[in-house]
Amino acid sequence: QDIRTMGRNTLKFTIRDGTRNYEAIGFGMGHQSQQLTSTAKITFHPRIHEWQGIQRLQLELKDLETDTEG
Predict the structure, then answer these.
(1) How far apart are alpha carbons 43 and 63 in whole angstroms?
(2) DSSP characters for the chain?
């Protein structure tokens, strides 16, 4: 999987849904990168992210529940 911690505490990873890939980013969630699994439950807000003139859909994480949580 493509899971990264960026900066001090930003989590970034790719979600795959069939043939489509979505970039997910969680500000203040970098500490959860080690517990993230393929069956984690997420809540997100879709937004358009623009970088160097290219626009793409990005899922901004609002909440993340891993398998290790109750």
Answers:
(1) 5
(2) --EEEETTTEEEEEEEETTEEEEEEEET-GGGTTT--TT-EEEEEEEEEEETTEEEEEEEEEEEE-TT--
Taking only the tens place, the pLDDT of each residue in 1-40 is: 588 999 989 999 998 888 899 999 999 999 888 888 878 8
Q: What is the dihedral of CA 46, 57, 21, 27, to 10 degrees?
A: -60
Q: Is 44 left (phi over 0), alpha (psi -120 to 50) or beta?
A: beta
Amino acid at the residue 15: I
pLDDT digits (tens, 9 = 90+) for 41-68: 889 999 999 999 999 999 999 998 877 6
Question: What's the predicted TM-score (pTM) here?
Answer: 0.80
